[in-house]
Sequence to fold (359 residues):
Amino acid sequence: MAHPRARLMILLLAIALTGASVSAPAGAAGAKPDKAAEAALDIGVVYWSMAIAGQVAMRRGLEREAARLSRQHPERPVRLRPAVGGEGEAGIVRQREAMYRFIGQRLDAIILQPIDSAALSSPVEAANSAAIPVVAYDQYVLEGKLVSYITSNNWLAGYLDGEYLAHRFRDRKTPLRLVIVEFPYVSSTVERVEGLRDALRDEKLPYAIVGRYEAVEPQGGRAAGRAILANHPRGTIDAVFCVNDGGGHAVMEELTRAGRRDVVMATVDGDPRMIDEIRRGGIVGIDTAQFMGPLGAEAMTMAYRRLRGEKVPRQVLITVFPVTRENLAAYPGWDGPIPDAIRKPWAPAETVPGNQRTW
Fold:
């Protein structure tokens, strides 16, 4: 049987070969009608998944902002053309197909939440050749030009989790025994691991990574949780860091079901179910939350402003909120609004950096 990555490359090659035909002349079948009679701005949106709660929240924020902009500018309303990739290799293929379809339809712009930073590069380059602006959010692409890239400050999210662990285990005499549940295929999750390790280094907390697993969605999280239980008996690990709650919630359920109160979890996203676990005093010590709704809304805003001829920042980093039992009352939830000042709930109570824009 072919290796999964080999099968994926075959599928991507097939799409690339067929995708070359979508840049047909304006009169070809499937081309978009004359825009002179069209007031609406047609924007294709290529989502990652509707099985990951945080990504659903980003979509809600994006679509609410599209509706708001249409009300504010009735002379140039927004008409969204949504497509969802889904999980795994098939999801990457569907995202690429949607990109090439939108290019063939001559849409005004494309907003993309890529599943794989490398595999979505060729469609972005094809959109560049067709002079269709592309805004990416949540994840980056390795090649091709983006009008703007909007994401959470993912390095900061990992760093805050690392600072929390260093504070919680500050009196430990032996190295922290750490398990990482990661996803080394997209920029956001890679940056979170980098941030975590930078914080542990800066705080001078000795640690050893005793296990690494991959998961960003429920099925993978369940498998990772069961593997952790099988490979790391009680008393052999201290902390589990999960790069998101899409997989982390399932990891938490497996560990909780097994009664693993010897483990502290540090995770990223702010899934309401994980926040409830913190509130109950469960095994989740910190969940550094993204502002999902504002992130999706910012992607929509950048695309619309670009289509109106405005200059937009090349990158927008949306700040994050380190949620622990100590500051639950101050956390506004996924939809925001983003507080003017966010303070770390451990000493010293420094302010978390706000949103950052790079022009």
User: Anything to note?
Assistant: The longest strand covers residues 207-214. The chain has ten helices and 13 strands. Residues 1-30 have pLDDT under 50 and may be disordered. The CA atoms of residues 313 and 359 lie 4 Å apart.
